[in-house]
Amino acid sequence: MKKILMLGGSLYQVYAIKEAVRLGYYVISCDYLPNNPGHKYAHEYYNVSTTDKNAVLELAKRLQVDGIVAYASDPAAPTAAFVCEKLGLPTSPYRSVEILSKKDLFRQFLADNGFNVPKAQGFSSYEEALSAVDKFELPVMVKPVDSSGSKGINKMTDISQLKTFVDDALSYSRDKRFLIEEFIEKKGYQISGDAFSVDGKLVFHCFGNEYYSSKVSKNFAPLGECWPFLMDDSIVFRLHSDLQRLISLLGMKSTAYNVEAIVDKNDNIYILELGARSGGSLIPQITECTTGVNLVTYVIKAAMGEDCSDLHMELPKGCWSNYMVHANETGKYVDTVFEDSFKENNLVEFVTDIKKGDQVHKFRDAQDALGTLIIKYENVDQMFGMIQNMDRFVKVIVRK
After folding, report:
1. pLDDT grade, residue 390 (50/70/90)?
2. So what's the pLDDT on residue 94?
3. How far is it, in rounded angstroms, from Cα 371 to Cα 12?
4. List of E strands, the chain
5. Taking a C-beta distance cutoff of 8 angstroms, is the pair 46, 38 a contact?
6. What is the phi/psi pair of residue 14, to 5°?
7. What was the pLDDT predicted at 215?
8. How many CB atoms sit inside 10 A of residue 350's CB?
9. Dist CA 265 CA 325 (whole Å)
10. 84 vs 253: CA distance, rounded Å
11. How far apart are CA 96 and CA 363, in angstroms?
């Protein structure tokens, strides 16, 4: 039986671990959290950090694994590519995955290759940034170079905010580096979704509309994505073309991507992220709901060197969204209550590991999500009507 090493066993990685087992592989999981729920579905577990490249390399060597997956994990994606490259296992180039995983490297790569990109620069200290901030036109975004889920990201409108925002960004950066980039005013919804290339050819994508709430302190921290994609077909065509050119330049092979992009007021497309991994927040599961394509199967097959040539585009059907369940105040978690008709007619799944009595924080970004919903709707009007009033249908009860 072939062996597959899964980097991570968190709640949102359970699906991939189960899929690898279903496909008939001997599944080994590792991370530094032995109580993570995914490990109980694997055949073996090892307490090895997914960001410790050399430790994972030694583990993979010793166990003689046939493939490695970093499912829905930005921090683990470079580790998987590094180890696979060292061992001659299926992978995209480590250097390319590293570029996609570091915002400063990625922005520079885009600029060097003629893509639309905001003015951006990476820094290691407040003093370094302060000496260069006058080169930027406010507002700007201050971001860790290597975080996900909107953690440590702030929009700066006044230089007096710089120190606070730099400290916040550095607190979430493993490399202790941050990026300053000029803010782009977007047209319509931010684009979010998953894609897949087979032998370097972009053969599948399923883009959605990222939505936000004005009720949370960071109104650029998304609450979820919804489908179908509402932008013009010409935008999809141009985005596909840009992504293919980027994938080709980077020499990417057979792999999943999480795509984040925006269109500005002049219809210019900016690729904000091309994560070399599947999306979080149940995006692959909703992709399957709306297209019938199980991308997780292909993630596993690609990692094991299996043929993925049967993957092809399927247009989305129906109206779907995910939604980050969150608290509107800080305190002890009591319960999540759903409105009756919503629970009966719209709610498909609630994935969570939150327990009564757990301490929860008022929503700031993805780290404060208590779980994720998959929701179906009758039509687009109902979808946006409900999304804009989700507090009527989903109530998180917190005791202060």
Report:
1. very high
2. 98
3. 9
4. 3-7, 26-31, 44-47, 67-69, 120-123, 140-144, 154-156, 178-182, 190-198, 201-211, 224-227, 255-263, 269-275, 319-325, 331-338, 347-351, 359-360, 371-377, 394-399
5. no
6. -60, -45
7. 67
8. 17
9. 31
10. 13
11. 33
Residues 6+ apart with CB under 8 A from 36: 8, 9, 10, 11, 13
Strand 26-31 with 44-47, pairing: parallel
Q: Which amino acid is at 219?
A: N
High-pLDDT (> 90) share of the chain, %: 94
Q: Round to whole Å and give the CA distance between 315 and 2.
A: 34
- Smallest CA-to-CA distance from 265 within 183, 187, 209 is with 187
The C-alpha atoms of residue 257 and residue 100 are separated, in whole angstroms, by 10
Strands (E), 134-189: 140-144, 154-156, 178-182
* Residues 30-39 as b or e (16 or more Cβ within 10 Å = b): bbeeeebebb
Instruction: State yes or no: pLDDT of 244 exceeds 70.
Output: yes
Q: Find where tokens 């053969």 sit.
A: 203
Cα 294 to Cα 6, 97, 98, distances in angstroms:
18, 23, 26
Mean per-residue pLDDT, 151-180: 95
- What SS3 state is found at 377? strand
What is the total residue count of the chain? 400
- Determine the pLDDT at residue 118: 96
Confidence (pTM): 0.95
Beta-carbon contacts of 393 under 8 Å, excluding residues fewer than 6 positions away, are: 338, 339, 342, 346, 386
CA 63 to the chain's CA centroid: 29
**Contact, 150 vs 368, CB < 8 A?**
no
Half-sphere exposure of 13 (CA within 13 A, CB side): 28
End-to-end CA distance of the chain: 51
Cα–Cα dist 22/221, whole Å: 35
Half-sphere exposure of 84 (CA within 13 A, CB side): 28
